[in-house]
């Protein structure tokens, strides 16, 4: 019977969750997950599930420097490859976060958060943490509800990291569907893309690529000449 765990145990090293070699690559790669998924499909899409005020999860409040468990602004999306859900993206920021700290967050819609974060020179990413999630975890329940399935083969692997911009802190958690291991690369490695500094480019080009649904081959070709993720 699946193990019940409503609160995840987070580890600072992937060895703490014992992933397969394929999953380890997805978990530990610090490249933008958006661009990595684009390299593994023909059509990439962000499906927004919710963006609203809600009580943060029990293991989140300390990571975003709250004094206790409080309401936050949260955003859940599915990242889809060729219309198959591959990742649940879960983002939280404090309610007192300002538009100066996160000017884009409230207007993202179904655009990719990752392209904005990785294209902004003011954003610094923190250490990755890793966890195994089971059927009672709130994020797993949201995955089931969003896809209409009763459950998965457990555990599901997840990672999270903080992003800081000025004085603001954002926590991004990514939970991988089991189908992620079936993906095969069909495009060039995004890590081989030249950096903006090397090409003298501005981060202002990033929103050009924040489309709800697009052809991955076309976008990666454009990104490879203009954006380092």
Please give the structural blueprint.
Elements: H1 21-28, H2 33-38, E1 43-55, E2 71-81, E3 84-94, H3 113-119, E4 123-125, E5 129-133, H4 138-147, E6 156-165, E7 168-176, H5 196-199, E8 213-215, H6 216-226
Antiparallel strand pairs: 1-2, 1-8, 2-3, 3-7, 4-6, 5-6, 6-7
Keywords: Cytoplasm, Lyase, Pyruvate, Ubiquinone biosynthesis
Pathway: Cofactor biosynthesis; ubiquinone biosynthesis
Binding site for substrate: 75, 113, 174
Protein traits:
eight-stranded antiparallel sheet, single chain, 229 residues, 6 helices, 20% helix, alpha+beta, globular
Structure commentary:
By secondary structure, the chain is of the alpha+beta class. 20% of the residues lie in helices and 28% in strands. The protein contains six helices and eight strands. Strands 1, 2, 3, 4, 5, 6, 7 and 8 form an eight-stranded antiparallel beta sheet that branches. A hairpin with a 2-residue loop joins strand 6 and strand 7. The termini are far apart. 38% of the residues are buried. The model is unreliable at 192-214 and 218-229 (pLDDT under 50).
Assembly state of the chains shown:
single chain
Distance between the termini: 41 Å
User: Which regions have little confidence, pLDDT < 50, spanning 5+ residues?
Assistant: 192-214, 218-229
- Element order: H for helix, E for strand: HHEEEHEEHEEHEH
State the secondary-structure class: alpha+beta
The outline comes out as: globular
Largest sheet: 8 strands, antiparallel
- Share of residues in helices: 10-25%
Average pLDDT: 83
Pfam family, one: Chor_lyase
Family: Belongs to the UbiC family.
Catalytic activity: chorismate = 4-hydroxybenzoate + pyruvate
Protein name: Probable chorismate pyruvate-lyase
């Amino acid at each position: 019977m699946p193990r019940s765990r409503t609160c995840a145990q987070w580890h600072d090293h992937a060895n703490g969750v014992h992933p397969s070699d394929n999953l380890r690559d997805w978990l530990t790669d610090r490249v933008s997950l958006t661009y990595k998924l684009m390299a593994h499909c023909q059509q990439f899409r962000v499906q927004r599930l919710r963006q609203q005020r809600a009580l943060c999860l029990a293991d989140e409040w300390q990571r975003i420097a709250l004094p206790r468990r409080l309401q936050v602004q949260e955003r859940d999306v599915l990242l889809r490859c060729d219309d198959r859900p591959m990742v649940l993206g879960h983002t939280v920021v404090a309610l007192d976060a300002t538009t100066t700290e996160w000017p884009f967050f409230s207007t993202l819609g179904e655009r990719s958060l990752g392209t904005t974060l990785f294209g902004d020179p003011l954003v610094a990413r923190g250490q990755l943490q890793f966890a195994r999630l089971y059927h009672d975890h709130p994020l797993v329940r949201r995955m089931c509800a969003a896809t209409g399935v009763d459950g998965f083969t457990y555990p599901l692997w997840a990672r999270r990291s903080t992003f800081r911009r000025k004085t603001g802190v954002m926590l991004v958690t990514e939970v991988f569907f089991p189908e992620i291991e079936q993906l095969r690369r069909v495009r060039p490695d995004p890590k081989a893309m030249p950096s903006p500094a090397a090409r003298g480019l501005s981060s202002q080009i990033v929103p050009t690529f924040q489309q709800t649904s697009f052809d991955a081959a076309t976008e990666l070709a454009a990104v490879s000449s203009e954006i380092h993720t």
